[in-house]
Amino acid sequence: MSEFAIDVHGLRKEFGGKIAVENVDLQLPKGEVWGFLGPNGSGKTTTIRMLSGLLSPTAGTGTALGYDILTESEEIKARMGYMTQKFSFWTDLTVRENLEFVARLHLIDDVASVVSATIRTLDLQDRQDQLAGTLSGGWQQRLALAAVTMHGPDLLLLDEPTSGVDPLARRDFWDQIHRMTEERNMTALVSTHYMDEAERCDQVVYMSRGRLVAKGTVAEMIANSGLVTFRADGPGVRKLMAALKRASGVEHVAYFGAALHVSGTDRSLIERTIGELRSQNIEWREVVPNLEDAFIALTQKAGVAGERSA
Ligand SMILES: Nc1ncnc2c1ncn2[C@@H]1O[C@H](COP(=O)(O)OP(=O)(O)OP(=O)(O)O)[C@@H](O)[C@H]1O
């Protein structure tokens, strides 16, 4: 049996001659939670759909949970939980009724007790008789997670499960993911645009223009970005923005509250630029780049302008 929950090579998907995903290799060890990041349109959903057996690749091979993604998609679907970006449920049924419906779709034998156990696991007791359409965004996502985990999957593929959900509900959601993966030895691949969520993952993979361009722990991603980052604090620091954007050696500048993060990969160039801009009021100090700095750099390196307008 493979030690990987996902083990795919050379995945490619074309839609009408346009390449959406190209040459994706991914080996996700069992029991780990990985974050899947990348700009809009970079190919994350398409990749997740190929991994789930719902979309056949134009080229490439591999397995999910040991089953061939090309020929054994039914086996994969039975053992995985897939939460789509716009997970839908019946708004005029209660939470419990929704889960009962899903349990029947999965041909679960003892519907009542499995639904009750799921409701307890996900702390939905107080909401079980509420109409699903009246739940807040955070509770709707909780219901979606209940629905996709009720049949005891070994693999979770979650596509931006927390978009539009407030920070507290997002944290609760992630606590649930970690608890469930730990208790049931599940593996999860979760796409997200949130940096704090990426930091909760064992590893992250970063996709750009249909290709996986970086992979590793958050610390490795930051270290491999090769970025040098300086932080500028002081009155009027924001006025430096325009000059910094044009300055040599500065690859990106970002606001961090009242401060600026100025990053580049050529230390001598960026130090020279900062030297030229030094003034008494502004304090410059080198800081460890954060994940957002690293991802902005990756995105810019890949020339993402074309991707976003695609
Ligand atoms: N069924 C389809 N037919 C044609 N083109 C498609 C189809 N599905 C996706 N695409 C294209 O493939 C590319 C990748 O899209 P995909 O939805 O996989 O990106 P994504 O990284 O999930 O984006 P987002 O973060 O916005 O969800 C895009 O250019 C998209 O327009």
TrEMBL record:
Q: Which InterPro entries match?
A: AAA+_ATPase, ABC_transporter-like_ATP-bd, ABC_transporter-like_CS, P-loop_NTPase
List keywords of the entry alphabetically: ATP-binding, Nucleotide-binding
Is Oxidoreductase one of the keywords? no
**This chain belongs to which protein, by name?**
ABC-2 type transport system ATP-binding protein
Q: Which PROSITE patterns match?
A: ABC_TRANSPORTER_1, ABC_TRANSPORTER_2
Note the superkingdom of the native organism: Bacteria
Database matches in Pfam families: ABC_tran
Instruction: Provide the species name.
Output: Sphingobium subterraneum
Q: Where is the ABC transporter domain?
A: 6-234
Q: Where do transmembrane segments lie in this chain?
A: none
Signal peptide position in this chain?
A: none
